Amino acid sequence: MDDTADPTDFPVPRRRFLGLAGAATVPLATSGRARATPQPQQSPPVPRGPAIGLDTVAGGFEQPIDFAPEPGGDRRFVLERTGQMYTVESNAQGNPFIDISDRTTPVEGEQGLLGLAFHPNFQKNGTFYLRYSAPPTDATPEPYSHTAVLSEFQATDDLSGGRPGTERRLLEVPEPQSNHNAGAVTFGPDGYLYVSFGDGGAAHDAGTGHVQDWYGALDGGNGQDVTENFLGSMLRIDVDNRTGDKPYGIPDDNPLVGEEGLDEHFAWGLRNPWRMGFSDGDLYVADVGQDRYEEVNVVEKGKNYGWNVREGTHCFRPNGNIDSCPTETPGDVRGGERLVGPIIEYPHTRDDEPIGSSVIGGYISEGGVDALDGQYVFGDYSIRAGKPQGSLFVADPSQDGLRSFEKLRIAGANNGELNAHLIAIGRDGDGELYALTAGGDLGGGVHRLVPAANARNGAATTGGGNRTNATGTSSTDGPGFGVLAALAGLAAVGVRVLDR
C-alpha cells in the first residue's frame, strides 16, 4: 500500500514560522558565470515548533511503558514492560514497588505489563490497578495468543510496596494475537476506571479472533462489533461497586445499558489505542493506524471512531484506497450512529519525507514550560533508516476541525531530534510532562520536559545504564531497547513495539 500522502491531507498550521519561508540561494561562482537560479527551500514534513529541554530523572530501564503519580503523595511511578513497577527515585536498579513478572507472558509482540492506574483514594485504601498480558486460561479459545488481564492490587499498610498476593482479577479478555493490545488504564473525573482494548491484532482487522460486523466490504472486525467481545473498544467500569456476579460495577449511564451490546462499553471503533489521559475533562486517546495515517481522538460516551471502515478521516481498504465509504452505520445498527473523525491526523510520510509510524498519546501541558502552556503534547514512536528517532509534537487543542501541529525541537540533542524511541508520555501531580524513551541516544529513561535552557539530556542512573557525555547527549552502555527486542524475539532492525 502506498504510504505517501497527498499534501492537502496534512493540516496546515495557522501560524507562520521563522525560517520556513523563503529560498536557499546557490553561491556565486568565481569565474563570472551567470548566477544560479535560487532553489526553493524544502519545508519539513511537520513545521518546526518551539525548543524544549529534557531533564532525565530516571534511567536504566529496558522499556518504560507507563507513568503515574501517587494520588495525594509525592512519588512518581514507572512501569517496566517486563513486569516491574518502580518509583522514579529508585530508577530501574532499586527494588521494585511490585514485581509480577512471574504471572505475565514472555515479552513478545506487544505483550507485557502495559498499564497502571492508582485508585483516587490510594492514600486511604492502598489500591491500584495493573493491566498485563497473561498466559491463556482454560477459557481462552484455541489458537488464541494470550489473556489480557486487568487486576486490582493492595499496597502494604505504609504504602511502601505492592503485595502481589492480593491480586483480584477484574477482567480476563482472550486476545487472539500478540499485538494491538492497547493497555492504558486511567480514572476519569467521574471516579470510574477507563480501560482500553485494541482490535485483537493482525493486520487489516482480519484473521483469527475477528468477528462478523455490519460492514460488508471487509470480512468482519472487532472494532465495529459491541456484542461479542470488548476488543476495539473503550470500557468504563465502577471498581467501588458490584453489578450481579461481576467483580466490578457497571455505571448506570454507560451507553449500552439496556441496549443491545455489552454493558461495559463506553466507546468503540478503535484499532490500537496507545496511551491516553484526561485533560480539562476530555479523554484524549491516540489510536495507532494501519499503513497510512495516525490519529488522536477525543473519546466520548457512545461514540464510534470508525475503525475498520475508516483510518483517520480516510476510507480504509486493505488492498488499496477507495473513494467512498460509509460515514455512519446502517439504521438497524444502533440507530445509524455517525463515525466520528479524529482531532489530529497525520500521514506516515509527506512529500516522501517521514513523519512517523505509531502515534503516542499525551496531555495538555500545565507545567513549567511556558512554550507549551495550554498545548496538547503528544508524539510518535518512529524508526527511520533502522534507527530510533521518535518525535514530540504540540497542537493547540482550542482549534476547530483537524488541529495543526508542530514538531518540538530538543535542545542539546543532535539535530534537535529525540534520537530514541518514544514509548509514552507521562504527567505528574503538578502537571509536568515526561517523555518515556527506549533505545537510541537516551536508552530506557524518563525525561521531564523543561525549558530549553534547563536541558540535561542523558539518563541519570546508578549501577549502569546510560551515562551523560560532555555534549549533553547520552551513550547507551546499559540495557536498552535492543536487549528487550532480543528478549521479545523481534528483529533488531526495523522493530516496532507498536507492531502493525
Question: What is the helix tally?
Answer: 2
Strand order of the largest sheet: 25-26-29-30-4-33-32-31
Instruction: Describe the oligomeric state of these chains in a short phrase.
Output: single chain
Helix content: under 10%
Give short descriptive properties of this protein.
single chain, 500 residues, mainly beta, eight-stranded mixed β-sheet, four-stranded antiparallel β-sheet, 35 strands, 2% helix
Structure overview:
The protein has 500 residues and is mainly beta. It has 2 helices and 35 strands. Strands 25-26-29-30-4-33-32-31 form an 8-stranded mixed β-sheet, with no helix packed on it. A 4-stranded antiparallel β-sheet has the order 5-6-7-8, with no helix packed on it. Residues 1-34 and 459-500 have low confidence and may be disordered.
Brief overview:
The chain contains two helices and 35 strands.
Helices and strands in order, then pairings?
Elements: E1 4-5, E2 23-24, E3 39-40, E4 48-61, E5 64-69, E6 76-80, E7 84-87, E8 98-99, E9 113-118, H1 122-125, E10 127-134, E11 146-155, E12 162-175, E13 185-187, E14 193-196, E15 233-237, E16 265-268, E17 273-279, E18 282-287, E19 293-299, E20 310-311, E21 314-315, E22 344-347, E23 349-350, E24 353-354, E25 359-364, E26 376-380, E27 383-384, E28 387-388, E29 391-395, E30 405-410, E31 421-427, E32 433-438, E33 444-451, E34 466-468, E35 474-476, H2 481-488
Parallel strand pairs: 1-23, 4-30
Antiparallel strand pairs: 2-3, 4-33, 5-6, 6-7, 7-8, 9-10, 10-11, 11-12, 13-14, 14-15, 15-16, 17-18, 18-19, 19-22, 20-21, 23-24, 25-26, 26-29, 27-28, 29-30, 31-32, 32-33, 34-35
